[in-house]
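Progress report, Aim 2. The chain analyzed during this reporting quarter is listed below.
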Amino acid sequence: MIEVIEVIEVIEVIEDIEVIEGRWSFDDFKRWTRGESDAELFGDQYREDPEAVEQNIFGECGDAGLLELISNPDCRERLYFASLLVLSLCNVFRSGRSLPFHFSRFLGLENREVYFENVVVDAVRVYEKCEVINSMSNSNDPAITSFYKQVMDFRHDEVSLVSDFYLDCTARFDLKLFDDSRGGFQKIVSSDIKAV
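Predicted structure tokens for the chain:
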């Protein structure tokens, strides 16, 4: 008899769970992270396709929305949402200089207008992410302040890595086919040339 009562109580709890059909809105995420909704964010849908759930979060919240969610110290799953924001904001360091070549060297240069259009679109995306990063500088929350300082420190690491990559490329460049078979003068090029 006791087992039957426990089963009935579990069924009642299941019936009280809020169900949000389809994609969640930013307001749904805000309510859920504040504990105002008991819908299952990490239920069957997350287990079946976690990428779809994360794309829903990125699509509805964006960087500014994720920052708003984690700015609440009582945010449910704060670490999870902060890790999504890290993945998104650290993309500013992946952008690098985009060269106007197609991936295949046989296709040569991209169309000038298309290239410039893509550069502007990418610059806008990077700038918007940097606005979110910069907005963290005014936070009184130690977690947000730490997040901000770490991202800002990564800027220096990125400059160092780009410089290291440049120097590595120049050191690995094979110019043997340019050897002067007549024994001409060989100028030694300094490895201290700085990237422009």
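Residues 70 and 80 are 9 Å apart (CA to CA). The chain is about 60% helix and 0% strand. These observations will guide the mutagenesis work planned for the next reporting period.
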